[in-house]
Each structure stands twice: as structure tokens, then as C-alpha cells.
């Protein structure tokens, strides 16, 4: 709301020609003088009417001036940085009117004080190089009620056109993924202008977020459990085939379920536990996690006799030590792993299940 303050004194009524007229200068403030609960990201402006600013300042309760820009003709000033939550701001300065008379600039307003500010994080991080199935993930420390307001503050820019959409995987996480895998070597910039965004129930965004990252080469793992082989394709060409052992086919608890996964994490050594099947603290090397359900691609030299012949693992994809390291060294976080031919299919419900949903299912999770 803009309020115009007439800064003149008592104007002439025309009945007393001997009495001097008051100053003609006026002041328009946005937000208006005395306004409360102003969003700190709202436009903050002061406009001199029938005159120009000699000086103009907006200060917080500590007396620190807010950064701003004065127009070349010295008639308009606007804040160039967001304000703080729960603050009181005071205008000061002077305007010289067209009549040559000087008048003071006065006014005050206060910004809203959230009941709660909510922190968010974004992944991938700056300068990361990731695989062609990597989703963009924004996670919040608390559940978000007004998802549509948050989603309107999110933007994805790409170096080449890429069709994609946001989807809420939970009340605390919204992901963006392309309809199909990312084109190789795409540069991606994400801006999440969350500061000042109302999340609902008195909660607001704590800070803006940005990240820029790059998509690497196009590497896809084809994991057909019926073949007992793990096939690696890069930029459309097959570059490796490794004898493998997948999950036991006749025990649903030990299947390697169908689904498109991504490489989530890489560790040269992984300590594995599965009390249901009686093992703890099993040390395996060159482990690439593909699901928080418990599936990895990893070395299992002790099971060398079964590789390429029998599926007898507890759900992971077993390779020889040499082949596991070769695959591990080739993999990027975000590479897709397409498992097919299994007796069961993974339910979409674990941390990274973006590619377990088809495009229609994905877009229905948007709040837009």
C-alpha cells in the first residue's frame, strides 16, 4: 500500500493573500507510514512529489542504513536488498520542492515476525558433476503446508531445453526431475527464492538458495536379472559387461526388485547388516548404493562361483573385486540403474524414488 504524505504546512485558502503559501513538496511511501506486518521482500520505495530528494535514508532499529538506489533525477529511492524479519524501519531525509522550499522526510513501518522460520537445503551442490538421472531435491527442516507458495518460488534454468516438473515426495521434500533423462553435459542453475515465502501456519522461509551443477556423460546400467550380467552403456554404446549375481529369485525378501534407481552414494568400504538373514558387520568393497531399501552394486569375491551363473544374493548386485572396482570408478552419483526381469517390483516410498514413478504419476504430485 502506498500512502502519500503532504509535507507542506497550512496551505493558502485564497482568502488571505498576505499569508505565504506552504511548501508544495509531497512524499509517497511504500509501504505506508505506520504499516505493520510488512513482508521483508515487499517493494520498499519513497517517491518525492513536486520536488527531489536532497537526502534520503531508511534505517533499522540499530541505526544501520538499508542499501538502496536513488534514481538519477533524485525523485525515487528503492531498497535494493530484502529487509529483516520482525524489524522496525525509519525514514529520514529532506526534499526540496519545486518552490525551493525544503521539507523533512519522516515515516516508519515494521516487518512481520514469523512464528517460525524454516531452513531448507538444495542438492546437487554447487559445481557437482552428476549422472543423467539425478533429481534436484529441496528439503525442509519442517513440514510445509502451503506447497504451492513454495513451488512458485522455485526455478530451474538449463543450458539446453529440458522438460521437467516439481513433485512433492513428502511434506518436507520437493524434487524436480526431467521427463526423460537429462541430456549429457547440460549445465543447470536452480534458484529457490524462499526468504519471505509463507509456508503456512505462521512459518516462513529462512533464506534463499541457489546451486549450479553439470550433468556428466550419459551412462546407464542395464541390469536384467535373468541374464546374470551387468551391462554398462555410455553415450549410447555398450562399454562393459560384468558377470553378476542378483537377489535370490524365489524369496521375495531377497529379490533385486524391478525399477529404475540411481547411484545415491559411493563408498570404497561398506559394512553390511541383515539380521533377518543372520549376518552382521560384513565388509564389502567398491559399494555403490542404489536404494535406501538396502540395494548396492558391490564386490563379493566370496561369491565368485555364482557370478554370471546363479542369483543368490540378499538383494544386492554382486560383482568380482576387479569388476566392482572398474564399475565403481566409472560411476557418477545420479547415474541410472535399470533393473528388469525380477520376480518383484520396488514400491515407491524410499528416499530416492523419483524414477520409480511414471511421468503421469510424477506430475500429479506437483502443487502448481
TrEMBL record:
Pfam families reported for this sequence: Big_10 (PF17964), YkuD (PF03734)
Keyword annotations for this protein, in alphabetical order, are: Acyltransferase, Cell shape, Cell wall biogenesis/degradation, Peptidoglycan synthesis, Transferase
Superkingdom of the organism of origin = Bacteria
Annotated active site residues, numbered on this chain, are 298, 316
The record, for PROSITE patterns, names: LD_TPASE
Its pathway is: Cell wall biogenesis; peptidoglycan biosynthesis
> What positions does the domain L,D-TPase catalytic occupy?
219-340
Entries under PANTHER family matching the protein: L,D-TRANSPEPTIDASE (PTHR30582), L,D-TRANSPEPTIDASE YCIB-RELATED (PTHR30582:SF2)
Question: Under which name does UniProt file this protein?
Answer: Ig-like domain-containing protein
Amino acid at each position: 500500500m502506498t500512502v502519500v504524505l503532504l509535507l507542506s504546512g497550512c496551505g493558502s485558502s485564497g482568502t488571505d493573500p498576505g499569508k505565504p503559501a506552504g511548501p508544495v513538496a509531497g512524499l509517497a511511501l511504500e509501504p505506508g507510514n505506520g504499516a505493520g506486518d510488512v513482508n521483508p521482500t515487499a517493494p520498499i520505495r519513497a517517491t518525492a512529489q513536486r520536488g527531489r530528494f536532497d537526502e534520503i535514508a531508511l534505517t533499522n532499529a540499530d541505526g544501520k542504513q538499508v542499501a538502496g538506489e536513488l534514481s538519477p533525477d533524485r525523485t525515487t529511492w528503492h531498497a535494493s536488498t530484502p529487509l529483516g524479519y520482525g524489524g522496525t524501519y525509519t525514514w529520514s531525509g529532506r526534499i526540496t520542492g519545486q518552490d525551493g522550499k525544503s521539507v523533512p522526510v519522516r515515516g516508519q513501518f515494521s516487518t512481520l515476525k514469523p512464528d517460525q522460520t524454516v531452513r531448507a537445503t538444495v542438492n546437487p551442490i554447487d559445481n557437482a558433476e552428476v549422472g543423467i538421472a539425478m533429481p534436484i531435491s529441496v528439503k525442509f527442516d519442517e513440514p510445509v503446508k502451503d506447497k504451492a507458495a513454495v513451488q512458485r518460488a522455485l526455478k530451474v534454468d538449463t543450458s539446453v531445453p529440458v522438460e521437467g516438473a516439481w513433485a512433492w515426495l513428502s511434506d518436507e521434500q520437493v524434487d524436480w526431475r526431467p521427463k526423460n533423462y537429462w541430456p549429457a553435459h547440460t549445465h543447470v542453475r536452480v534458484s529457490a527464492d524462499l526468504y519471505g515465502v509463507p509456508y503456512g501456519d505462521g512459518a516462513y522461509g529462512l533464506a534463499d538458495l541457489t546451486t549450479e551443477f553439470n550433468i556428466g556423460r550419459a551412462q546407464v546400467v542395464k541390469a536384467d536379472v535373468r541374464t546374470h550380467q551387468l551391462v554398462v552403456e555410455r553415450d549410447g554404446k555398450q562399454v562393459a559387461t560384468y558377470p553378476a549375481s542378483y537377489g535370490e529369485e524365489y524369496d521375495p525378501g531377497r529379490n533385486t526388485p524391478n525399477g529404475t534407481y540411481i547411484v545415491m552414494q559411493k563408498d570404497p568400504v561398506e559394512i553390511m547388516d541383515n539380521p533377518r538373514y543372520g549376518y552382521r558387520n560384513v565388509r564389502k568393497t567398491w559399494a555403490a548404493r542404489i536404494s535406501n531399501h538396502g540395494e548396492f552394486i558391490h564386490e563379493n569375491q566370496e561369491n565368485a562361483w555364482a557370478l554370471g551363473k546363479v542369483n543368490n544374493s540378499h538383494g544386492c548386485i554382486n560383482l568380482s573385486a576387479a569388476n566392482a572396482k572398474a564399475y565403481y570408478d566409472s560411476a557418477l552419483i545420479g547415474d541410472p540403474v535399470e533393473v528388469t526381469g525380477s520376480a518383484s517390483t520396488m514400491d515407491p516410498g524410499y528416499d530416492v524414488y523419483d524414477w520409480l514413478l511414471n511421468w503421469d504419476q510424477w506430475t500429479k504430485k506437483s502443487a502448481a
